[in-house]
Amino acid sequence: MSTDDPVRPESDRSAQSALPFLAPCRPLHASAPLRWIRKGWADFRRAPGASLGYGIVIVVLSWLVTGIGLRPMICDRDADAVTAIVTSVNAVLRNKPAMAVWVTLIVGLTAVGFATALLGLAVIIPLLGYATWHGYLETIDAGAWPVNDPG
Fold this sequence. Notes:
It is built from seven helices and no strands. The chain has helices at 10-17, 32-46, 48-64, 72-76, 81-94, 96-115, 121-139. The longest helix is centred in the last third of the chain and has 20 residues, at 96-115. It is globular.
């Protein structure tokens, strides 16, 4: 049986096997999620058309499906789902106060979105998406993993 993998050359496989099981995470202050929302709002204001376009697509999809979730580490780095999930759980366990604030913000903002007949989600979902990205960058040190090649 051949060990050739046409999708991932041998050099990539050996580099991947040298990576740690999970990415280290930085300690966060409980107010960190507020900073993520502030930065997310700044990103939203820099690209309002694209943000609202994305938000409208999500509103339409939310009428059709019930679950939406992204794993920034998988999008950003060449990491498998298990590594991303274990890293995420590790970050939550090491930063409980900040994550309690974060989950409160997510639930509260999502409630506002539902209270506006899902129309508020056109702004809230992109805002939370941007804020999640900033939270990932501030929390997870994924420098050991190669950057994901989108093409």
